[in-house]
Every structure is written in C-alpha cells, then in structure tokens.
Write a structure and sequence with these properties.
By secondary structure, this protein is α/β, with parallel strands linked by helices. The protein folds into 2 domains: about 20-260 and about 325-375, Glycosidases (TIM Barrel); about 405-455, no CATH class. It has 11 helices and 23 strands.
Length: about 450
C-alpha cells in the first residue's frame, strides 16, 4: 500500500482521531481600524473567524471606568464571530497604562470595584475574558508601588473570575496581559513569577526594538547581530528573560508584527547601522510616519533592493532614501519554528488589519502572514487547534489507505481540483484548504489569487 497508512480490521468499529495543536494564536483587532480611509475600511466582518484561537477587541478609551464604555454595537458584531466558529475565544482589551495605573489598582477597594465591574461588563457583552494591557508602567505613574499593585490587581481579578465561575457554573473568564519587551521596563514594572500564577497568557510584544534609534535597524529581529554590543534587543533574549525570571513557557506568547518600521536614510549607506535623519514616509493605509502595514510593504518591495540578515533571520529593504525592516512569510515561519523548539505557548499577532487581509496587494492570498503563522503552529480551522474528528467505518477484512492530498507533496500553494476559487496550502504533508477573496481565482502561474480566470 506504499507509504500511506495501512489499516486492516477484522471487526466493524468506529475510530476517532483528534489531533490537537498545543499552541495559541491570539490576534488583535484594533477598533481604530474603522477610522482609516474609507476605501480601506476594516471591521469585525472583515475578520476570518477561523484564523486565530483568540481574538482581542482593542480600543483605547477615555475613561478608566469600564462601565462607561459605549461600543455596544461593535461588541456585538465582534462577538457574533463566535456564531461561525464555536471554539473561538474573544477578549476585551483594556489599556491600563493610558491613564495611570493608580486609579484602579491603588487600594484594595478600587481593585475590587474594578474586578467586579469587569466581570459584569464581560458577561453582558459576551466576551470570554480580559486582555489587561499594562505596558510602560513607569511612563504612566512613576510610583514605585505600581509593581506590587499590578501583582495584587492580577491576583484579585483572577480570584473574582474564579468565584464568579463557581457561582454561575459558567466557564471561567480568561485573564491575559500584553507586556513590554524592554528589559529595563520589565524590571521596573513586573513581578514576573507572581503575576504568572494568575494570568492565562502573557504576550511579550517582541517588536519596536529599534524604532527610536538614530541608525537603521530591524524592529523585531529573532537574534542579535554578532557585531552588536547590546544583546538584549531581540526576541530570543527577551522571551528567555521572561522565562528565566519565572514565567512558565506554556503561558508566554511571542509577539509577531504585521507591520514594518521605516527610516529616511541620511547618507548613501544602506546597511544595518546606516545613519538616518528621521522616520520613513507614511503609507496610504497606516497613515503613520515610520510604519508600513504589510499590505503597504509589498508594493514598496517592487523595485527595492531586498536583503536578509543572516544573524537576525529577518529581511530588510531599501529604495531611494527609504529603509525598511519588516517580516515576511519566511521570517514568520522561522520565528514560529524557534517558538516551537523552545516550547513557548504560542503567538500573538499585532494586528489583523495590517496584514494583507484582502489579498490584493501581495498576491499571497488573504491574510498571508496570519495564515502562515496559523499553518506553522498546526492550528486547524476549528479555531482552537483541534482538527475535526476523523471517523472511519470498516467491514470485516476490508483495508483502506488514508492519505491526504498534500501527502508527500512539497510545501506550497496548489490549485483545488473541483473549485477554482479554492486552493491547497500544503505544509508538512498536511492539507489546508484556503479560499480566494471574492472576485478572484487561484492562478497556478503565480501561485496566488488574482482576477485572471482559469480557462475552461
């Protein structure tokens, strides 16, 4: 029967096979996405509900009192995604550093009031948990007690979540936290071992390492450069620092950016370390100097010179006086493999709308970076890493060879035999059926979705 799986049975039986990915993929939806130019409108309905295991609705608010937040209609649209994917988990992002930590964490009474209001709010709007953003604490309040207050806040919130679940018989609300990747800020802001006991996931935002330097450099390198004196500004160092300070690897999520950082070069030099005069030009979508979304990066690369840093395992490019450090599908795959090799809990993607979510800028399919990460982490369309039960029924003396379409097929994109609108993404011999955006078909010549219809 070749190299396929040979199954021989003598009795009639039902076999269930369930393959589970041990990794989480937490993705951020930025409420500010709907404020961009109208032609780039991105809203909850733009999200593929099967891409990620967890989705975070992130929106900076003007009040620390969560009961005053009034995005009710958007909350419903966002959480309606769970009607399509029953296993999807949604969280509300609370940006605590924006208005000072002390206002909700300074006393036991204020922490209790906040925790109770969060439970009520999350249940009312059908969220599954809270993503408590407490980065840069010393920038917000400068109180030496903030470190301990955050520990107490996390501990007491988890106690409130457990008590509510016990009382209502509902699944406990999740508590996660995105944290800084700056070692200096980490030492000031967090009691790592203590907060780890009461958080389900800790997302290390492992990017923006080089945004404010006066030389060109990548903002999210996997490793440090051999010629660099500072060995801290990279993913490998900061994730292992969090781990070594007491955070369990299974709770640590690695931040993956779907944006690049740009600089305007000061001289004719183009290598990493070249002097720069200012941030790069703003893109038409992101609208922020020094930042390009992935859907802006792909057009920039046309006519640009592209280089790969062997030490850092990430690409950069330059064109004219513009210098860009970015990630692509190859660097995402490399980082994801490093994540798996080091047994971290998964990935966190910032953010969905910055990917080429329509698929018409990079011609790599819709959400190319997110889908690359999903495939690399073996997360299937069930949304929580579980593949559907695979059932086989056999009669006496029957044999059957079970082999997926992608079995012994090189990794890559391939046309779907019965539907030109679909295509196979083969990875490690596993099938991943993808769908082209509306109005596009899969094209074998470019291995991408475009408007060139197949000839019948």
């Amino acid at each position: 029967m070749g190299k396929g799986l040979l199954l021989t049975v003598s009795l009639v039986f039902l076999q269930h096979v369930s393959l589970v990915s041990p990794y989480a993929l937490l993705c951020y939806y930025l409420k500010t996405s709907d404020k961009r130019l109208a032609k780039f409108n991105f809203n909850p309905e733009s999200i593929d509900p099967y891409l990620c295991t967890h989705l975070v609705y992130s929106n900076a608010q003007e009040s620390t009192d969560i009961s005053k937040w009034k995005d009710d209609a958007m909350y419903k649209r966002f959480n309606d995604l769970k009607k399509k994917n029953k296993n999807l988990k949604t969280l509300l992002g609370y940006i605590g550093f924006a208005y000072g930590n002390g206002s909700i964490a300074i006393t036991k009474e204020s922490r209790e009031k906040f925790s109770n209001s969060v439970v009520t709010f999350l249940r009312k709007h059908k969220f599954d948990g809270l993503d408590l953003d407490w980065r840069f604490p010393e920038h917000a309040c400068k109180s030496p007690e903030d470190k301990q207050r955050f520990t107490l806040l996390v501990k007491e919130m988890m106690e409130a979540f457990k008590a509510e679940a016990l009382k209502t018989k509902k699944a406990r609300l999740l508590l996660t936290a995105p944290v800084t990747a700056s070692k200096r800020d980490v030492k000031v802001g967090y009691e790592i071992a203590e907060i780890s006991r009461n958080l389900d996931f800790i997302t290390v935002m492992a990017f923006n390492f080089n945004m404010w330097n006066f030389v060109a450099g990548h903002h999210s390198p996997l490793y440090h450069r051999s010629v660099d004196g500072n060995k801290e500004h990279n993913i490998n160092y900061i994730l292992k620092y969090w781990r070594d300070q007491g955070a369990p690897t299974k709770k640590l999520l690695v931040g993956f950016p779907t944006f690049g950082v740009t600089f305007t070069l000061k001289t004719h030099k183009t290598v990493i370390g070249a002097p720069v005069s200012k941030s790069g030009k703003a893109g038409s979508y992101s609208g922020t100097s020094g930042i390009l979304a992935y859907q802006e990066i792909c057009p920039f690369l046309n006519g640009a010179t592209i280089r790969m840093t062997e030490d850092q395992k990430v690409p950069y490019a330059f064109k004219g006086d513009q210098w860009l450090g970015y990630d692509d599908r190859q660097s995402f795959t490399t980082k994801a493999q490093w994540l798996k090799d080091n047994h971290f809990g998964g990935a966190a993607l910032w953010a969905l709308d910055l990917d080429d979510y329509i698929g018409n800028k990079c011609y790599e399919g819709a959400y190319p970076l997110t889908n690359t990460l999903k495939t690399a982490l073996d997360i299937n369309d069930s949304g929580d890493g579980r593949k559907p039960f695979f059932s086989l029924s056999f009669s006496k003396t029957s044999t059957m060879e079970v082999r997926p379409w992608c079995y012994e097929t090189p990794n890559g994109f391939y046309s779907f035999p019965s539907d030109p609108h679909k295509f196979y993404n083969c990875a490690g011999g596993k099938n991943h059926i993808m769908v082209c955006p509306e109005g596009m078909d899969f094209n074998d010549k470019c291995h991408c979705c475009n408007k060139c219809k197949k000839k019948q």
